[in-house]
Design goal:
2 domains, globular, Rossmann fold, 263 residues, 9 helices, alpha/beta, 10-stranded mixed beta sheet, SAM-dependent_MTases_sf
Amino acid sequence: MRAALGRALRTGGLAGAAILARARVRLGLAPRFSGVWDTREAALAALPAAEARGYDDPDIAEVSFEAMCNREVWDYPVLHWLSRWLPDAPRLLDAGGHMGTKRIALGALLPLEGVTWTVLDTPGIVTAARAAQAAGRIPADLSFVDAPERAPETDLLLASGLMQYVDRSLTEVIAALPAPPRHLLLNKVALRDGPQIVTHERLDAVRVPYRIRARADWQAELDRLGYDLVDTWRIPDLSHRIPTHPWLGMSQSWGFALTQRQK
């Protein structure tokens, strides 16, 4: 570490900061984001075996669970569109919904009479969620599924913070459902100018692959889906720079509301 510090001080600037960040990774003190790979598979292969499960791990379920149950400023566009759509689109699929954190955070402000709220997440997270539900820690009216193919028909797909972690494209996620939802609410989508990259995000004691998609590719995918974009919002607080590769610039976090195009 002393040698890395000396090189960083001599180098200075972004390169010096990257030297220090990489030294921290080698010492087991990784910053929140570290490393860059072209694919999720390569990012997973770079992790120790104990961390190679990604988000499919019951132990991750409790990391920041209480914090994720709080309402944040970036939840309010989601709250707005849920309030408008749920009365006529009551079958909601919360993809990447963890242990029902958005239902807990927003439920008191939503018209939930007649609404079925189903959470889709990895088998590890769903196992932990069902145990927490049996213990009375999360609402009893939530349902959980661990694969898109097991999801019920849905009117409204909510994906808040999903696209950074999911293996599939949005097109593939929708294609795996019983039928395309009428509405899509996509929040906290990590984008960048330039090619897609995958980094490691540190979650407490483990790291998971975190995908930052190419903005141009993402926009082209949305255009092909057969939905009309009715709203979009930027979330400046969730922009990130990868300390080990600071020259790649800041990511941006965006939200999107889309409704199925009329034929």
